[in-house]
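Colleagues,

For the teaching module next term, I've prepared a clean inverse folding example: a structure given as tokens, and then the sequence designed for it. I'd like students to try predicting residues themselves before seeing the answer, so please don't circulate the second half yet.
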């Protein structure tokens, strides 16, 4: 399946298929009770999502939206869970996948625990370069999304980005 920038793969609260991202980038956005969106994760190629449904099915924690053009394979949950029940190798593969994602998220927590806003942005840019690729973060995320990702206001992100260009 091909998704173009801005198209939705699945919505928060829905249940259904698993997905393998072959290429592109997805963002996971969680809607708060007041309807405001909050960026909670970025999905990179070769991930199978939703992560919390890899062992057993659960409703989607957020909405998956294409950040760029994406190639996505639909994975049948019935086949996935049947194979899982019969294959210790598949369980190990999932454990390794989740271990990698946990390490990625630990680095994200390091960004959030920085005190100075400039340090938060710097850590995010380093993380982005390591996991997402060579494109500048501002080519993929809006200033508002960057702020959501590291707990800063858009105005602060704007100021920091302008200062880094000087």
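(Answer key — instructors only)
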């Amino acid at each position: 399946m091909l998704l173009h920038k801005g198209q939705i793969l699945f919505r928060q609260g829905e249940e259904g298929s698993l997905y393998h991202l072959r290429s592109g980038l997805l963002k996971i956005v969680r809607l708060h009770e007041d309807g405001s969106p909050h960026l909670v994760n970025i999905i990179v190629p070769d991930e199978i999502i939703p992560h919390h449904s890899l062992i057993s099915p659960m409703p989607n924690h957020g909405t998956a939206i294409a950040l760029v053009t994406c190639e996505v394979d639909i994975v049948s949950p019935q086949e996935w869970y049947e194979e899982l029940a019969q294959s210790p190798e598949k369980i190990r593969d999932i454990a390794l996948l989740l271990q990698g994602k946990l390490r990625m998220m630990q680095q994200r927590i390091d960004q959030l625990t920085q005190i100075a806003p400039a340090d938060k942005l710097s850590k995010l840019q380093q993380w982005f370069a390591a996991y997402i690729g060579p494109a500048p973060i501002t080519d993929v995320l809006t200033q508002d999304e960057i702020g959501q990702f590291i707990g800063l206001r858009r105005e602060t992100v704007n100021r920091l980005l302008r200062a880094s260009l000087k």
